[in-house]
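Check the record.
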Amino acid sequence: MNKKPNILVTNDDGISSPGIKSLIEVTGKYGNLTVIAPDKPMSGVGHAITMRKPIIIEAVTHYNGISSWKCSGTPVDCVKFGLANILKEKPQLVVSGINHGSNASINALYSGTVAAAIEGCLEGISSIAFSLTNWEEDADMTITKKVVKHVIEKVLEHDLPKGILLNVNVPDVAEKDFKGIMICRQARIYWHERFIEEVDDDGNKMYWLSGEFSHNDKREDTDQWAIENNYAAIVPLQIDLTAHHLISHFKKFELL
Protein backbone atom coordinates (compact mmCIF):
# COMPACT_ATOMS: atom_id res chain seq x y z
CA MET A 1 0.00 0.00 0.00
CA ASN A 2 1.34 3.43 -0.93
CA LYS A 3 1.92 5.78 1.96
CA LYS A 4 -0.42 8.77 2.04
CA PRO A 5 1.36 12.04 1.26
CA ASN A 6 1.83 14.67 3.92
CA ILE A 7 0.01 17.93 3.13
CA LEU A 8 0.41 21.31 4.82
CA VAL A 9 -2.76 23.42 4.82
CA THR A 10 -2.84 27.16 5.43
CA ASN A 11 -4.69 30.34 4.39
CA ASP A 12 -4.90 34.09 5.02
CA ASP A 13 -8.52 34.34 6.21
CA GLY A 14 -7.80 32.69 9.57
CA ILE A 15 -7.85 29.27 11.18
CA SER A 16 -11.66 29.27 11.58
CA SER A 17 -12.69 30.54 8.15
CA PRO A 18 -15.25 28.57 6.11
CA GLY A 19 -12.76 28.42 3.22
CA ILE A 20 -10.08 26.54 5.12
CA LYS A 21 -12.71 24.20 6.53
CA SER A 22 -13.74 23.29 2.98
CA LEU A 23 -10.11 22.87 1.92
CA ILE A 24 -9.46 20.55 4.85
CA GLU A 25 -12.57 18.54 4.00
CA VAL A 26 -11.32 17.87 0.47
CA THR A 27 -7.58 17.46 1.08
CA GLY A 28 -8.13 15.14 4.04
CA LYS A 29 -9.15 12.45 1.55
CA TYR A 30 -5.74 12.55 -0.13
CA GLY A 31 -3.16 12.78 2.62
CA ASN A 32 -2.10 13.28 6.20
CA LEU A 33 -2.85 16.90 7.05
CA THR A 34 -1.09 19.44 9.19
CA VAL A 35 -2.96 22.73 9.48
CA ILE A 36 -1.27 25.97 10.53
CA ALA A 37 -3.04 29.24 9.79
CA PRO A 38 -3.26 32.80 11.13
CA ASP A 39 -5.26 33.37 14.30
CA LYS A 40 -7.08 36.26 12.59
CA PRO A 41 -7.79 37.48 9.04
CA MET A 42 -4.55 38.49 7.28
CA SER A 43 -5.78 39.29 3.78
CA GLY A 44 -3.63 41.54 1.63
CA VAL A 45 -0.39 41.10 3.55
CA GLY A 46 1.43 39.62 0.56
CA HIS A 47 4.75 37.96 1.38
CA ALA A 48 5.20 39.80 4.69
CA ILE A 49 7.06 38.04 7.50
CA THR A 50 7.22 38.89 11.20
CA MET A 51 10.66 40.07 12.31
CA ARG A 52 10.25 42.84 14.90
CA LYS A 53 8.12 40.97 17.40
CA PRO A 54 7.72 37.33 18.37
CA ILE A 55 5.06 35.11 16.87
CA ILE A 56 2.85 32.97 19.06
CA ILE A 57 1.90 29.45 18.00
CA GLU A 58 -0.88 27.55 19.77
CA ALA A 59 -2.31 24.10 19.14
CA VAL A 60 -6.05 24.04 18.47
CA THR A 61 -8.68 21.30 18.32
CA HIS A 62 -10.84 22.65 15.51
CA TYR A 63 -10.55 19.74 13.10
CA ASN A 64 -11.27 16.35 14.66
CA GLY A 65 -7.87 14.94 15.45
CA ILE A 66 -5.99 16.70 12.64
CA SER A 67 -2.79 18.33 13.90
CA SER A 68 -3.80 22.00 13.84
CA TRP A 69 -2.16 25.22 14.99
CA LYS A 70 -2.98 28.92 15.01
CA CYS A 71 -0.27 31.52 14.46
CA SER A 72 -0.19 35.20 15.43
CA GLY A 73 1.86 35.98 12.32
CA THR A 74 1.33 36.10 8.57
CA PRO A 75 0.49 33.27 6.15
CA VAL A 76 4.16 33.07 5.19
CA ASP A 77 5.09 32.85 8.88
CA CYS A 78 2.70 29.90 9.10
CA VAL A 79 4.43 28.01 6.31
CA LYS A 80 7.92 28.85 7.55
CA PHE A 81 7.16 27.75 11.12
CA GLY A 82 5.31 24.65 9.99
CA LEU A 83 8.20 23.46 7.86
CA ALA A 84 10.87 24.34 10.42
CA ASN A 85 9.25 23.37 13.73
CA ILE A 86 6.12 21.25 13.32
CA LEU A 87 6.58 18.88 10.41
CA LYS A 88 9.30 16.27 10.81
CA GLU A 89 9.92 16.19 7.06
CA LYS A 90 8.93 18.24 4.04
CA PRO A 91 5.37 17.59 2.90
CA GLN A 92 4.56 16.54 -0.65
CA LEU A 93 2.10 19.41 -1.01
CA VAL A 94 1.31 22.88 0.39
CA VAL A 95 -2.26 24.08 -0.20
CA SER A 96 -3.46 27.57 0.69
CA GLY A 97 -7.07 28.81 0.84
CA ILE A 98 -9.85 28.55 0.03
CA ASN A 99 -9.64 32.34 -0.07
CA HIS A 100 -12.82 34.40 0.11
CA GLY A 101 -12.37 36.76 -2.87
CA SER A 102 -10.51 36.83 -6.16
CA ASN A 103 -6.75 36.51 -6.37
CA ALA A 104 -6.67 36.86 -10.14
CA SER A 105 -4.37 39.22 -12.03
CA ILE A 106 -2.48 41.80 -9.92
CA ASN A 107 -4.26 40.57 -6.78
CA ALA A 108 -1.82 37.65 -6.72
CA LEU A 109 0.97 40.08 -5.73
CA TYR A 110 -0.93 41.38 -2.71
CA SER A 111 -2.45 38.08 -1.61
CA GLY A 112 -1.43 36.33 1.59
CA THR A 113 -3.07 33.19 0.21
CA VAL A 114 -0.82 33.16 -2.85
CA ALA A 115 2.23 34.20 -0.79
CA ALA A 116 1.84 31.12 1.41
CA ALA A 117 1.93 28.93 -1.70
CA ILE A 118 4.94 30.86 -2.99
CA GLU A 119 6.74 30.09 0.27
CA GLY A 120 6.05 26.40 -0.16
CA CYS A 121 7.34 26.61 -3.72
CA LEU A 122 10.51 28.33 -2.51
CA GLU A 123 11.13 25.25 -0.37
CA GLY A 124 10.83 22.96 -3.38
CA ILE A 125 7.32 21.73 -2.53
CA SER A 126 4.44 21.48 -4.99
CA SER A 127 2.16 24.33 -3.89
CA ILE A 128 -1.30 25.58 -4.85
CA ALA A 129 -3.36 28.64 -3.90
CA PHE A 130 -7.15 28.34 -4.18
CA SER A 131 -9.60 31.26 -4.22
CA LEU A 132 -13.34 31.70 -4.80
CA THR A 133 -14.54 35.00 -6.24
CA ASN A 134 -17.07 35.53 -3.45
CA TRP A 135 -16.18 37.61 -0.39
CA GLU A 136 -19.10 36.44 1.78
CA GLU A 137 -18.55 34.16 4.77
CA ASP A 138 -21.45 31.93 3.68
CA ALA A 139 -20.24 31.54 0.08
CA ASP A 140 -21.22 28.29 -1.61
CA MET A 141 -18.04 26.21 -1.92
CA THR A 142 -19.57 23.35 -3.95
CA ILE A 143 -17.90 24.09 -7.29
CA THR A 144 -14.65 25.18 -5.66
CA LYS A 145 -14.37 21.92 -3.75
CA LYS A 146 -14.77 20.00 -7.02
CA VAL A 147 -12.02 22.10 -8.61
CA VAL A 148 -9.77 21.56 -5.56
CA LYS A 149 -10.33 17.81 -5.79
CA HIS A 150 -9.47 17.68 -9.49
CA VAL A 151 -6.37 19.89 -9.23
CA ILE A 152 -4.96 18.11 -6.17
CA GLU A 153 -5.39 14.73 -7.83
CA LYS A 154 -3.47 15.89 -10.90
CA VAL A 155 -0.68 17.58 -8.92
CA LEU A 156 -0.19 14.56 -6.66
CA GLU A 157 -0.04 12.39 -9.77
CA HIS A 158 2.39 14.52 -11.76
CA ASP A 159 4.04 16.96 -9.28
CA LEU A 160 4.87 20.51 -10.32
CA PRO A 161 8.15 21.65 -11.89
CA LYS A 162 10.56 23.21 -9.42
CA GLY A 163 10.01 26.92 -9.04
CA ILE A 164 6.39 26.75 -10.27
CA LEU A 165 3.19 27.05 -8.24
CA LEU A 166 -0.47 27.21 -9.27
CA ASN A 167 -2.83 30.11 -8.63
CA VAL A 168 -6.40 28.80 -8.95
CA ASN A 169 -9.44 31.11 -9.02
CA VAL A 170 -13.00 29.81 -9.20
CA PRO A 171 -16.00 31.87 -10.38
CA ASP A 172 -18.99 32.41 -8.13
CA VAL A 173 -21.64 30.87 -10.38
CA ALA A 174 -24.40 28.29 -10.15
CA GLU A 175 -23.25 24.74 -10.75
CA LYS A 176 -25.29 24.51 -13.95
CA ASP A 177 -23.45 27.53 -15.39
CA PHE A 178 -19.91 26.37 -14.57
CA LYS A 179 -18.00 25.62 -17.80
CA GLY A 180 -14.83 23.92 -16.58
CA ILE A 181 -11.17 24.77 -16.01
CA MET A 182 -8.83 26.89 -18.15
CA ILE A 183 -5.05 27.18 -18.03
CA CYS A 184 -4.43 30.91 -18.38
CA ARG A 185 -2.02 33.80 -18.29
CA GLN A 186 -2.30 36.56 -15.69
CA ALA A 187 -4.46 39.45 -16.90
CA ARG A 188 -3.05 42.99 -17.07
CA ILE A 189 -5.39 44.64 -14.60
CA TYR A 190 -4.66 47.18 -11.90
CA TRP A 191 -6.46 48.82 -9.02
CA HIS A 192 -7.51 52.44 -9.44
CA GLU A 193 -6.91 53.40 -5.84
CA ARG A 194 -8.10 56.20 -3.62
CA PHE A 195 -7.87 57.00 0.08
CA ILE A 196 -11.04 57.84 1.98
CA GLU A 197 -10.45 60.50 4.63
CA GLU A 198 -12.04 60.37 8.08
CA VAL A 199 -11.45 62.27 11.30
CA ASP A 200 -11.13 60.54 14.67
CA ASP A 201 -12.55 61.75 18.00
CA ASP A 202 -9.41 63.81 18.64
CA GLY A 203 -9.62 65.61 15.31
CA ASN A 204 -6.81 63.64 13.66
CA LYS A 205 -7.13 62.75 10.00
CA MET A 206 -7.00 59.08 9.04
CA TYR A 207 -7.31 57.33 5.72
CA TRP A 208 -8.82 54.08 4.46
CA LEU A 209 -7.52 52.52 1.25
CA SER A 210 -10.22 51.85 -1.32
CA GLY A 211 -10.37 51.47 -5.09
CA GLU A 212 -11.88 49.93 -8.18
CA PHE A 213 -10.68 46.86 -10.05
CA SER A 214 -11.31 47.68 -13.70
CA HIS A 215 -9.56 46.83 -16.94
CA ASN A 216 -9.37 46.93 -20.72
CA ASP A 217 -7.59 43.59 -21.06
CA LYS A 218 -9.98 41.70 -23.34
CA ARG A 219 -7.66 38.82 -24.24
CA GLU A 220 -9.48 35.51 -24.03
CA ASP A 221 -6.57 33.57 -22.53
CA THR A 222 -6.38 35.42 -19.17
CA ASP A 223 -7.51 34.47 -15.70
CA GLN A 224 -9.93 37.40 -15.52
CA TRP A 225 -11.57 36.48 -18.84
CA ALA A 226 -11.95 32.89 -17.67
CA ILE A 227 -13.61 33.93 -14.41
CA GLU A 228 -15.93 36.40 -16.15
CA ASN A 229 -16.96 33.62 -18.53
CA ASN A 230 -17.68 31.01 -15.84
CA TYR A 231 -14.42 29.06 -16.00
CA ALA A 232 -12.05 28.30 -13.16
CA ALA A 233 -8.67 29.82 -13.99
CA ILE A 234 -5.32 28.17 -13.30
CA VAL A 235 -2.26 30.38 -13.75
CA PRO A 236 1.18 28.76 -13.34
CA LEU A 237 3.32 31.29 -11.47
CA GLN A 238 7.11 31.23 -11.30
CA ILE A 239 9.45 32.20 -8.51
CA ASP A 240 12.11 33.50 -10.90
CA LEU A 241 11.14 37.14 -11.60
CA THR A 242 13.91 37.68 -14.14
CA ALA A 243 12.82 39.17 -17.48
CA HIS A 244 15.01 36.69 -19.37
CA HIS A 245 13.95 38.01 -22.79
CA LEU A 246 15.45 41.42 -21.94
CA ILE A 247 18.86 40.36 -20.64
CA SER A 248 20.49 40.72 -24.08
CA HIS A 249 18.82 44.12 -24.48
CA PHE A 250 20.28 45.50 -21.27
CA LYS A 251 23.70 44.05 -22.01
CA LYS A 252 23.91 46.64 -24.77
CA PHE A 253 23.84 49.47 -22.23
CA GLU A 254 27.14 51.15 -21.44
CA LEU A 255 27.36 50.04 -17.85
CA LEU A 256 30.39 50.26 -15.56
Observations:
- The radius of gyration is 19 Å.
